[in-house]
Amino acid sequence: MIYPSDFEQRIGFDKVREQVGRLLQTKAAAELLDAVVFSCDFEFVKLQIGQVGEMVSVLRVENDFPLGGFKDINYFLKRVRIEGAFLETNHLVELNAALEMLAELVRFFENRKERVPYPLLADLAAPIGNYDAARREIERIIDKFGRVKDSASPVLQTIRRSIIEKNSQVGKRLQQILKQAQNDGIADEDSSITIRDGRALIPVMAGSKRKIRGFVHSESATGKTAFVEPVEVVELNNEIKELESDEKREIVKILIKFTDFIRPQIDELMVAGEIIADLDLILAKARYAVEIEARVPILDSKPYIYLHQARHPLLEKALKKEGKAIVPLDIALSETKHILLISGPNAGGKSVCLKTVGLLQYMVQCGFLPSTLDNSEFGIFDSIFIDIGDQQSLDNDLSTYSSHLINMKTVLREATSKSLVLIDEFGSGTEPTMGGAIAESILQKLEERGTFGVITTHYANLKYYAATAKGIENGAMTFDIQHIKPMFRLEMGRAGSSFAFEIARKIGMPEEIISMATEKIGVEQVSIEKQLRNAMRDKRYWEQKREQIRVANKNIEKSAAEYEMELSEIQKERNRLIKEAKEQAKYIVAQANRKVEQTIREIREAQAEKAKTKQVREELQGFINELDSENCEDPIERKIRLLRERAQRQQNRQAKQQQPIIEKPQKPKEIEAGFKVRLEGQGVIGEVMSVSGTKAAVAFGQLITSVELSRLQIVSHQEFKQQQRKSYSSLQSPTYDTGKQRLNFSQQLDVRGMRTADVLAAVENFIDEAVMLGFSEVSILHGKGTGALKQEIRNYLGSQPVVKSTRDEHEEFGGAGITVVKLDL
Hints:
Keywords: ATP-binding, Coiled coil, DNA-binding, Endonuclease, Hydrolase, Nuclease, Nucleotide-binding, RNA-binding, rRNA-binding. The chain folds into five domains: about 1-150 and about 260-290, CATH 1.10.1420.10; about 300-545, P-loop containing nucleotide triphosphate hydrolases (Rossmann fold, 3-Layer(aba) Sandwich); about 545-625 and about 635-655, no CATH class; about 675-730, SH3 type barrels (Roll), CATH 2.30.30; about 740-825, 2-Layer Sandwich (Ribosomal Protein S8, Chain: A, domain 1). The protein contains 26 helices and 24 strands. The strands form five sheets. The protein has a seven-stranded mixed sheet with strand order 1-11-12-13-9-14-15, with helices on both faces. A five-stranded antiparallel sheet has the order 19-18-17-16-20. Helix 8 packs antiparallel against helix 10, helix 16 packs parallel to helix 20 and helix 20 (about 530-605) packs antiparallel against helix 22 (about 635-655). It is extended, with a radius of gyration of 43 Å.
């Protein structure tokens, strides 16, 4: 269920539909776009999103996918079902273009039979048959200009040859008559034969028109010239007219014959026509996704939302035209925290957050890619409700507040735990105390029901309720108190302030008025928002602590399970080795018995000579000593002991790492090669390889980079060793997963709106992480603007040894607004 009926207009989806419509090539696809509706069928939504996602990959990677030739064919193919009906020549031209595109599409997927990177699109195109015979027949009948060829039939060729001969005769005779008329002075010297209504005529002076035997067809606008058809060519022109009629009849026969030829394939051809329309719509969605920098999200059948760097596509376009950058949003609605209550100053972006969530969720469930990063997650809701804007109605005698209450009545009646409710300025429109009480009651009911929602408000009682409610989380739109301006950034986990007094001071309201207002509401009321912020800060702190403890316990349990598994494997290995040892012991005993028997035999043969007996006994004792030397520690016991010692060392390391490092780094007067240093404000420690002027070459792991000496802090050898142990421990930890890090890493960094100093630091960290994760190519989105920011970034990248080259992105993907960086790995 979608409520109200004008939901798409309120949320802005009608404009998204309009912008996608401009990218369509066929009317059939436009009809499909108009028919797109909100779907709560998870498999259907997953299919739609997957198809568009594959098409985006095609646009970015492939160069042999047919992007043209999308034609409406089903509207004229319908007449093929009627016996005796035929297709026009323009229909054959469109059909041929469509069949050629389908053939290219089939070849595209056939070339990828062994490796199918686009399975959903391949399944969509699977019903396409072989229409080569129809294409050959069309190409035999018409030329590239859509004209029926002379060779389409022997009869047509004969008729057209006769028409050419008759026209030639008419032309020659008219030239003779015209020349004679010019000689007689009844036609101008520069006059020529004129074609009117399909007939060749001679222009003569109006006063002399009767001097030529023939029919006067018309006169010029001035009345000075008459156009005469000489009687000598009338018969020839009549014959030409008859031949042209014969030509039309023959063309109709040819078209009827072709129509009869393709009639057995009509059902298959109409399926192909539907595939063309589907592909046209998917391609338009993909092109729009590239335009708004949308990504394929993670989908789930359960209702929840996790938006990472979400952007309102319509607002972002509008801001780009003004040379401004949008502030992305991170929003989460889970089963435990399913309602987000956003508060903050007016014009601070609360409504934009609400509309962004509503529009992107609606786009996903309509089969459009959302403008978020690709690690965003969307669940499936069975209904969406919105209450936004002034809905006052004069016709129904409804006030703004009454219309809000009617909407809330609908929400309370229809909303479930699988519904998404979007309410702007909750509780406003009436007396604050009563309106706030009603709003709090509604909010409590929605929380108890498990309904998901994004709600904006200024009411303090709602913020207080959300601070203690289990299923509701406060969110605040940040505000720059120093400059008294909104920052349009959402912070989850704390309530926002309206900053009414601060804004009043900013716009120049007399301090006397502000003081009087403070006295009227009382000092306690003025400071209540501050107390609320402190409470939310404490709540957030303990929630983070609980989460850290939970993660730590989970890691301990995982480690214990892995140790148990490893010990079990070791025990199995021990049993196996013991069995082998017993077999080896039997062999050794047998070998020892043979040695003893041999010794006794040699002593007997030597008749107990003392020297020989001593020698034999020494050899036997040497053999016994050799066996004793192999009686070392049990390898299994040793491995268990080492494993336990390693676990103990790891626990000791974790305990030491949790203790703060008391030793403060000192900045020496001079930094030399071999010093251990870290960047100011950074935790990674590196080693100085060389110093040149004001810069030093520092090795951070495998990466060597040039850094200003003023940015370096020297660290002790002990701290460097501790950092190395910590890095090794983190790499050995079972929770480190390079594959997961690569999946979560975005190959594009957006630095629009950031200060230059922050930009270079962000670029430095971005390049370091890309190198560690093995990405050879990344991109930096900085926008076009004046080009100063782009130049700063390029200058910095040019100084880095690991950067192989930089270039502008292709024009269709951002052009000069994006720098593509190739890394030398």
